[in-house]
Amino acid sequence: MRIRTAAAATAGTLALLSFVTPAAHADTKKGDTVFSSLSFSRTTVNVGVSKTQAVTVTATAKDGSGIKDIYGAKLVSPDSRIVHPDSVSCTRPSSTSLKCSYKYALDANRTDYYDLKNSSAGTWHFTAEAAAKDGDFYDLETSAPIKVKRFAELANTQASPEPVAKGHTLTVTGKLTRANWDTNVYAGYTGQSVALQFKKSGSSSYSTVKTVKSDSSGKLKATVTAQSAGTWRWSFAGTGTTSGAAAYGDGVALK
């Protein structure tokens, strides 16, 4: 994974400028240079502990005099880590524009000192500078955000007893974990609100029955009164730094 801290200088064919990244500030520009379009192949990237996740950023810059180049394209994390593109391809749609696609790889598999850390989760930004042939420019800093989140998992839902008598108590358990990028394992995610949902037999959708907090190990437990046959599952909405998750359901019949 090609990643460097903000204090590291960038160099080479993919990083065309050499500089130290300052604290984030608003976009700046001179003249009529603009980024006329900017798109992400994924606006949220959920990263686990082993599989590399890819994202492509496509940027088009325009200026009346023509665009000389787009410099220093990179992704910057909340903890000032920098990810440089693995590959770049550019075309000139017109005499006044330049369109470039940047492919990035995000991982936390601990094969590189600079792989993702827990502090890296949250809102990242794509930054780059479009330089025009007449000296105008547009410095893109904070207006192109992307979410990079720690991947969460919910263990298969377990409901007992099965089958259950109508009107009797049913106990439903599960466990919420999330990727720990510092240790490269999945660990219990504590103190999180997780919805217990039910889908009645014959229905196509789940509805929330109650919400419980995960314990110190990420375990979940709830008791409900069984009124109908159907499927129970746990569902986690996610947070600003962690992905959502839904468990496989457990079907329970009435006796």
Largest sheet descriptor: 8 strands, mixed
Query: Briefly, what CATH class of the largest domain?
Result: Mainly Beta
- CA distance, first residue to last residue: 55 Å
Oligomer: single chain
The share of residues in extended strands comes to over 45%
Question: Which structural class should the secondary elements be placed in?
Answer: mainly beta
Q: Quote the average pLDDT.
A: 90
Q: Any overview of this molecule?
A:
There is one protein chain. The protein is built from no helices and 22 strands. The protein has strands spanning 3-5, 28-30, 34-40, 44-47, 53-62, 67-76, 81-83, 87-94, 97-106, 122-132, 137-140, 145-150, 152-154, 158-160, 169-180, 185-188, 193-200, 207-213, 219-225, 230-236, 245-246, 250-252. The strands form four sheets. Strands 1, 2, 4, 6, 7, 10, 11 and 12 form an eight-stranded mixed β-sheet that branches. Strands 13, 14, 15, 16 and 19 form a five-stranded antiparallel β-sheet that branches. Strand 6 and strand 7 (81-83) form a beta hairpin. It starts with a strand and ends with a strand. By secondary structure, the chain is mainly β. Helices cover 0% and strands 53% of the residues. The chain has two domains: 3-149, Macroglobulin (MG2) domain (Immunoglobulin-like, Sandwich), CATH 2.60.40; 152-252, Sandwich (Immunoglobulin-like), CATH 2.60.40.
